């Protein structure tokens, strides 16, 4: 079946070669080529370590995000500049959200036009002015888009997109490469459907019950990251891992805290800015120390390490903000 799907996919590619929409798509990519030359970008994966990062400090930085990162937006004071999804199961599963909530808010969004599994993504994603279509025909790294190999993870596609746009420093966040077992229904060895909460991303709802996605092949992804480094090292693109923990040691590590370069006052203002996106009237003094018996009704704060662990339980009733000065703050959903 996979061979048959891929054969059909290649045939469709030949038929689209001189399509008017494709010519417009290539013109869009050419417009973006080196548009951000010499600048830096934060390419953000969706691992659990994101909860340990003060992401509110990234306001006014260039950011690229993926898949269901939109679950994080309620905690932040910024929207991603760039967004990409390459997994056909994820695209179909969250098409409404992508079309109505993500694409209208970002500068540019990237998707395969045709997926090698013989899925016409344009049937699911609207062809808006800020949507660009990737050619993911070959599993290689490319420095000439729209040709763009997925290479086992959307992060690798994102790195190719960022390099094409001219970013010379790419900082990875949340690319943890740590995957715990999840209770899933397996349609086959690759296609999975979650049967319970997701332990492998920043939010248990990410690939939560009923969500469909492809089996993450960690060893294969690690191998592709090694090839990614080799490919872009030779082209002068610097890639760093600025995340917390995890197992991705292919790229040199840097400390996230020193990158935004914000004063303490600026950090304080950015944190409050993020909190006030949801409710401008609630101040830090309105949060009480965490008490398990009454936490369901109150806004509360708790030390960061405990707060990170509590997110998987409280995300359904509270919006978490942090970390900030050693604490996490949980705002009761719908609290006035």
Task: Describe the 3D structure.
The chain is an alpha/beta fold. The protein folds into 2 domains: 2-258, no CATH class; 279-332, no CATH class. It is built from 8 helices and 15 strands. It has helices at residues 2-15, 20-32, 88-93, 95-102, 154-164, 218-233, 264-275, 304-314, and strands at 40-44, 63-66, 82-84, 108-115, 119-120, 131-135, 169-173, 184-186, 191-194, 212-214, 238-241, 288-289, 300-303, 318-324, 327-332. Strands 1, 2, 3, 4, 5, 6, 7 and 11 form an 8-stranded mixed sheet that branches. The chain has a 4-stranded mixed sheet with strand order 12-13-15-14, sandwiched between helices. Strands 8-9-10 form a 3-stranded antiparallel sheet. The chain is globular and about 60 Å long. The termini are far apart.
What's a concise summary of this model?
With 336 residues, the protein is α/β, with parallel strands linked by helices. 27% of the residues lie in helices and 19% in strands. The chain is globular, with a radius of gyration of 20 Å.
Q: What characteristics describe this protein?
A:
single chain, 336 residues, eight-stranded mixed beta sheet, four-stranded mixed beta sheet, alpha/beta
Give the secondary structure arrangement, pairings included.
Elements: H1 2-15, H2 20-32, E1 40-44, E2 63-66, E3 82-84, H3 88-93, H4 95-102, E4 108-115, E5 119-120, E6 131-135, H5 154-164, E7 169-173, E8 184-186, E9 191-194, E10 212-214, H6 218-233, E11 238-241, H7 264-275, E12 288-289, E13 300-303, H8 304-314, E14 318-324, E15 327-332
Parallel strand pairs: 1-2, 1-7, 2-3, 3-4, 4-6, 7-11, 12-13
Antiparallel strand pairs: 4-5, 8-9, 9-10, 13-15, 14-15
């Amino acid at each position: 079946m996979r061979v048959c799907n891929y054969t059909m996919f290649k045939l469709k590619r030949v038929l689209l070669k001189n399509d008017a929409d494709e010519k417009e798509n290539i013109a869009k990519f050419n417009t973006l080529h080196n548009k951000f030359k010499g600048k830096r970008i934060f390419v953000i994966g969706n691992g659990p370590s994101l909860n340990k990062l003060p992401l509110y400090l990234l306001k006014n930085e260039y950011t690229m995000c993926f898949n269901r990162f939109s679950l994080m937006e309620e905690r932040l004071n910024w929207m991603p500049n760039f967004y990409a999804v390459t997994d056909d199961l994820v695209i179909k599963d969250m098409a409404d959200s992508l079309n109505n909530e993500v694409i209208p808010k970002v500068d540019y969004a990237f998707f395969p036009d045709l997926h090698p599994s013989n899925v016409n993504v344009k049937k699911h994603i609207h062809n808006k002015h800020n949507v660009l279509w990737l050619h993911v025909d070959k599993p290689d790294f490319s420095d000439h888009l729209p040709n763009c190999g997925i290479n086992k993870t959307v992060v690798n596609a994102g790195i190719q997109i960022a390099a094409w746009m001219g970013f010379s420093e790419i900082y990875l966040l949340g690319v943890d490469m740590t995957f715990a077992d999840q209770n899933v229904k397996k349609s086959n060895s690759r296609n999975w459907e979650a049967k319970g909460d997701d332990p492998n991303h920043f939010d248990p709802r990410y690939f939560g019950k009923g969500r469909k996605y492809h089996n993450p092949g960690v060893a294969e992804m690690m191998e592709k990251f090694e090839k990614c480094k080799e490919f872009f090292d030779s082209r002068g693109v610097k890639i760093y891992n600025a995340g917390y923990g995890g197992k991705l040691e292919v790229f040199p590590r840097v400390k996230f805290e020193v990158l935004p370069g914000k004063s303490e006052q600026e950090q304080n203002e950015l944190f409050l800015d993020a909190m006030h996106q949801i409710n401008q009237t609630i101040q830090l003094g309105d949060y009480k120390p965490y008490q398990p018996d009454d936490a369901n009704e109150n806004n509360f704060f708790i030390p960061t390490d405990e707060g990170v662990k509590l997110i998987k339980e409280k995300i359904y009733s509270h919006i978490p903000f942090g970390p900030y000065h050693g604490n996490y703050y949980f705002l009761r959903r719908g609290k006035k």
